[in-house]
UniProtKB/TrEMBL annotation:
<keyword id="KW-0963">Cytoplasm</keyword>
<dbReference type="InterPro" id="IPR004500">
    <property type="entry name" value="Pro-tRNA-synth_IIa_bac-type"/>
</dbReference>
<dbReference type="Pfam" id="PF03129">
    <property type="entry name" value="HGTP_anticodon"/>
</dbReference>
<dbReference type="InterPro" id="IPR023716">
    <property type="entry name" value="Prolyl-tRNA_ligase_IIa_type2"/>
</dbReference>
<dbReference type="Pfam" id="PF00587">
    <property type="entry name" value="tRNA-synt_2b"/>
</dbReference>
<dbReference type="InterPro" id="IPR002314">
    <property type="entry name" value="aa-tRNA-synt_IIb"/>
</dbReference>
<dbReference type="GO" id="GO:0004827">
    <property type="term" value="F:proline-tRNA ligase activity"/>
</dbReference>
<dbReference type="InterPro" id="IPR006195">
    <property type="entry name" value="aa-tRNA-synth_II"/>
</dbReference>
<keyword id="KW-0648">Protein biosynthesis</keyword>
<dbReference type="InterPro" id="IPR002316">
    <property type="entry name" value="Pro-tRNA-ligase_IIa"/>
</dbReference>
<dbReference type="InterPro" id="IPR004154">
    <property type="entry name" value="Anticodon-bd"/>
</dbReference>
<protein>
    <recommendedName>
        <fullName>Proline--tRNA ligase</fullName>
        <ecNumber>6.1.1.15</ecNumber>
    </recommendedName>
</protein>
<dbReference type="InterPro" id="IPR044140">
    <property type="entry name" value="ProRS_anticodon_short"/>
</dbReference>
<dbReference type="GO" id="GO:0005829">
    <property type="term" value="C:cytosol"/>
</dbReference>
<dbReference type="InterPro" id="IPR050062">
    <property type="entry name" value="Pro-tRNA_synthetase"/>
</dbReference>
<feature type="domain" description="Aminoacyl-transfer RNA synthetases class-II family profile">
    <location>
        <begin position="33"/>
        <end position="341"/>
    </location>
</feature>
<keyword id="KW-0067">ATP-binding</keyword>
């Protein structure tokens, strides 16, 4: 993409309404624009990152054997009356009446709708286990939407639902989700720690939240520092193997890690003092096992191996897709702007032409652009007639992990400069080697 042909409305001023750094940077980098309280338009740069986050979520869900689908945003109130949540959910639910006086709602979550789909089509244990998921917009009329996409009213969520014939298989589904989430967040350059939590309006006994440590997080968290040393890495996991998944879950749930809702001072005090940490965290996901809470009142049963009709065991599993953009920025920025992890960056690499209009520099930039594109990479070429300082400031603000700087002086010696956004370190390389280096970084 050439910057002169793109829509990147960066702001010079720091927007006064934004209280935390991720919100400020998302506005300044032209990623989002508020449409009304807690509701945002995703401008091209923000939309690109959102799609990248979504893609990783899809890939990891499908790697774990979960099936993608799409349910609507508007739901019938009648379904929620069946589960008893229509009245219980309270003012966070946006209730709507259509022209035929039928009650609808903008879905804050989809347990009822998925249970209805399941009961209409599945009746035997032979079709299980089954996990269906979608990535869809949700609406919760939060009393205090704030921090930009972090606590929005309209937000994008991945929500998945497992259906299992008995408790043991449902716990395997829970474990499988935990394992797949660990890999999902790591691919986004995040450390998200599973913490024992409270189930709130979704219900159920077993639940973990995934928290990214950040001073601006809304939750208070207590943990054993040992958990921050754990890495998922590129282990090969057989997601159907119950023992293997249970082992990984044990590894991550043995060190103490709880949110303030479930924190237990007596247990925490057994952690050696030098490893006890109190911090704040951003909740980027939550998994629940709630058994037959929805299947029983809604009559979602299957015939089990013994020929009996039993309500299915269910759980639901959420990832805050749009919130993740805020969380990633909170975890990865400096005074000059965002520092995108390579896994989610909107463009792989920036090209800065120090002397737009200089025939040599222009040609070298075009060649770099073509060579990077030919490798399957997407560069952002700053081809504006701007001074170098302004171009560097824009690149730093929007946070591309790598920048190639091209100027007449370097070209005389046959070199361009490859700079890491994270470390600020630069290397002078021939254009060919610079392209090969960037391609190698992205595994292309
Ligand atoms: N049905 C379950 C799991 S599918 C559910 O709704 N879980 S949840 O309430 O925990 O939401 C899942 C994730 O969505 C949260 O972990 C959080 O990351 C994100 N989320 C929740 N509320 C908001 C909000 N107001 N703005 C942005 N993201 C949110």
């Amino acid at each position: 993409m050439r910057l002169t042909r793109y829509f990147l409305p960066v702001l010079k001023e720091t927007p006064s309404e934004a209280q935390i750094v991720s919100h400020r940077l998302m506005l300044r980098a032209g990623m989002i624009k508020q449409a009304s309280a807690g509701i945002y338009s995703w401008l091209p740069l923000g939309y690109k990152v959102l799609r990248n986050v979504e893609r990783i979520v899809h890939e990891e869900q499908q790697r774990a054997g979960h099936i993608p689908m799409l349910m609507p945003t508007l739901q019938s109130a009648d379904l929620w009356r069946e589960s008893g949540r229509y009245d219980a959910y309270g003012p966070e639910m946006l209730r709507i009446r259509d022209r035929h006086e039928r009650d609808l709602l903008y879905g804050p979550t989809n347990e009822e709708m998925i249970t209805d789909i399941f009961r209409s089509h599945v009746s035997s244990y032979r079709d299980l286990p089954m996990t269906l998921y979608h990535i869809q917009w949700k609406f919760r009329d939060e009393i205090r939407p704030r921090f930009g996409v972090m606590r929005g009213r309209e937000f994008l969520m991945k929500d998945g639902y497992n259906f299992d014939v008995d408790y043991e298989s449902a716990i395997h589904a829970y474990n499988r989700h935990m394992v797949s989430y660990l890999r999902t967040y790591e691919r986004m350059g995040l450390q998200a720690i599973p913490m024992r939590a409270d189930s709130g309006p979704i219900g159920g006994d077993d639940t973990h939240e995934f928290l990214v440590l950040a001073d601006t997080g809304e939750s208070e968290v207590f943990y054993d520092a040992a958990i921050t040393d754990l890495k998922f890495g590129d282990r090969k996991v057989d997601y159907d193997n119950r023992d293997e998944c249970a082992e990984i879950v044990k590894e991550w749930t043995t060190p103490y890690a709880r949110t303030d809702e479930t924190h237990d001072e007596a247990i925490f005090n057994q952690v050696p003092e030098e490893r006890r940490r109190t911090s704040r965290g951003i909740e980027v996901g939550q998994i629940f096992y709630f058994g037959t809470k929805y299947s029983e009142p809604m009559g979602a049963t299957v015939v089990n191996r013994e020929g009996q009709h039993v309500p299915v065991h269910m759980g639901s599993h959420g990832i805050g897709v749009s919130r993740l953009l805020g969380a990633i920025i909170e975890a990865s920025h400096d005074d000059n702007g965002i520092i995108w992890p390579e896994g989610v960056t909107p463009f792989h690499c920036g090209i800065v032409n120090l002397k737009q209009g200089d025939a040599e520099a222009d040609r070298a930039c075009e060649q770099l652009y073509d060579a990077l594109t030919a490798k399957g990479l997407e560069p952002l070429y700053d081809d504006r007639e701007e001074r170098a300082g302004a171009k560097f400031a824009t690149m730093d603000l929007i946070g591309l992990p790598w920048r190639i700087t091209v100027g007449p002086r370097g070209l005389k010696n046959g070199v361009v400069e490859l700079t890491s956004r994270k470390t600020g370190e630069s290397e002078e390389l021939s254009p060919e080697v610079a392209v090969a280096r960037v391609a190698e970084i992205y595994g292309k």
